[in-house]
Design brief:
By secondary structure, this protein is α/β, with parallel strands linked by helices. It has 29 helices and 36 strands. It has a five-stranded parallel beta sheet with strand order 3-2-1-7-19. Helix 23 links the parallel strand 32 and strand 33. The protein is globular. Its cofactor is siroheme; FAD; [2Fe-2S] cluster; [4Fe-4S] cluster. This is Nitrite reductase large subunit NirB. Pfam families: Fer2_BFD, NIR_SIR, NIR_SIR_ferr, Pyr_redox_2, Rubredoxin_C. It comes from Paenibacillus aurantiacus. Pathway: Nitrogen metabolism; nitrate reduction (assimilation).
Length: 817
Amino acid sequence: MTGTNNARRKLVLIGNGMAGVNALEQILKLTNAFEITVYGEEPHPNYNRIQLSYVLEGSKTIDDIILNSRDWYEENGIALHTGTKVVRIDTAAKRVYTEAGDSADYDVLVIATGSKPFVLPIPGANKKGVVGFRDIADCEAMIEAAGRVKQAAVIGGGLLGLEAAKGLVQLGMETTVVHLMDTLMERQLDETAAGMLKAELERQGIKFRMGAKTVEVLGGTEASGLRFECGEELDAQLVVMSAGIVPNAELAKASGIATGRGIQVNDYMQTSAPDVYAVGECCEHRGVCYGLVAPLFDQGAVLAKTIAGANTAPYEGSTVSTKLKISGVDVFSAGEYLDAPDHRVLRLHDEWRGVYKKVLLRDKRIVGAVMYGDVTDAPLLARLVREGGEMSDELYAELFGGGSGCCGGGGKKSSAVQGMADEEIVCGCNGVTKGDIVRVIREDGLSTVDQIKVKTGATRSCGGCKPLVEQLLQFVLGDGYQDKQETKHGICGCTDHTRDDIVAAIREKHLTSVREVMAVLDWRQPEGCSKCRPALNYYLGMAWPQEHEDERNSRFVNERLHANIQKDGTYSVIPRMYGGVTTPEQLRQIADAADKYGAKMVKVTGGQRIDLLGIAKKDLPAIWEELGMPSGYGYAKALRTVKTCVGNRFCRFGTQDSIGMGIRLEQKFERLWMPAKFKMAVNGCPRNCAESGTKDLGIVGNDGGWEVYVGGNGGIRMKEAELLCKVKDDEELVDTCGAFIQYYRETGNYAERTSDWLERIGLEQVRKFVIEDADNRKALIGRVETALAKLADPWREIVESGKLQQEYFHLIEVARD
């Protein structure tokens, strides 16, 4: 193995975004000849920037939009360095240098540094409260601001500006889009489509200031508003700059690589430096810099084949068409979109149904198109514009006739996809072609969109291509399509079985391993996927706690290694501190271990514990042994912490012993696996110093006993906990907590927080099964006690097992040396 690794060439990718990682995915399909290292400035693995607006509005989390998890990098032998900025490339020595002073050699280098927001060169642009909208950090800054300020301004009426405005309105802010032009998205839409879009967004609560040139950001150190060229002002304590993007080419320019607007590349994506390539929004090809996803994947396909040594046609540029979903509205444009004297213009404008379609002809040739509302014909029109197709009576009837309106007919859909070339892109976000999808439908027997998503990646990002994927299914499967679509929505594309189907089969057929479940239930993918394997492992452990052996390899990397991986590849160690209480001896142990193993930071967490950050993977078993404390499970879908106030032991307002109860509950439930992470808090009085109202299970003491609150969430999607019941004594409280936890364990979907679970099944149902039905309550308590009986501290288990240490903490390093 050592010889094989040494023979592999070193490929370094600078930039961990969609374009660069997509190129890596294509390289991995072609060859295993490279030892790959990836540097990304952000602290996250590769995620879908197209869905940032969903993170901003709170309907998705960063985990929901991850395209390639840390497990993916590890499984493909890729060394990932997140939160790491490369500041210099020595093209002669073939070496890159990071801001932290580290360096790495390369045989092949790919630069995919993307783009950055264009910041207006106006006074006040650097004030606090002025942000861009290009990454997760921008989202976090806007979410934080929403808790403090009420008025926001978004400068720029393009796609990103409108998506930012939508998210800010969802966060409860009074939001105004300030646009220099008189029409929105003037580079994609004509006046009619832009007007329809503006009217719809106004109905959604967004305000507009059109034809306004911003000349200054007002305020002291913090933004307070905008001043326009006309002299008028707009109050805004948050200002989002979304007036365009510029290629991020500074690194290449500083390293002596030829740049213009972007990093200059030839038709094989090669830069002016030997063995250095560029791809994505950072590069300039034939004088053009592309800001849309589809051209970037066209570039990536050529780049991958070039680097892998495969035959490839040159990249000659992309004919740009734009199909977007803006705040729930579909729009499309391709080629020329503004009327000109030499155009013949065909239009359909239906205000009642909110549909607009325009096709531009020059000498009967289709040279452009714009659509709003119904974009069913987008793939057909994109191809016709690209090929200069000729309008005919038959084509006119298909596009404008027949009265099919928004829904269209089956024949029309089939003809649209039938005319697409196999190499034509269906999923622009992930570079999936029609040929890719047709092949997996025919060769692998796929019959649902979810199956295709797992196999090819199509629809896994923005979801805008889902209707086209469905049309391809209908086209390939013919009459069998409708029957296939009647299958139930499975937990992932590997199966049509739902969570309830799977748990029922596990219990009825007494299945005890992941492979056994997959075999008995006819999994399509023999190895499953990163979505279903952890879920099956949890369901098996929940159903058969005494028989099921935890399948560590089915867990995500944090749970396999019992520590949180950090952006620089090190880990954080959080020992358990029951109820947030510690001793001088424990503090000395923590301090000594932090010194000995070079912790980069020692931090008190929000859950009243101490976190040792920056510990090397190989040192984890040793530091756990040195600490002599149990795992705090800061990485797990399990009980994280039980936060407490000082209660009646010290507080003059305390009515109950919150510390004692918090320690008791934490010691009892600390190692119990849950569908998702689980947080608790115990307050000694209604003053709520331990913040029980935002916990999965919150307890408040009063003179008459305890109040139990459930389903709270203090994360991105904040939710206040609801009162489940009141109990009179400590024993009843512990039993109630156990019954509630077990009911959640047995009925929750894997990765479903209690806040979402409670919304789905309803508080009254929980009360019925956990509180009112005495027999069911007793059975739940019995089953949770059975599950608790087998649990042991994972840190101690690894410290005492040389085999586990070798397998999970040393083997990978030995193999790579």
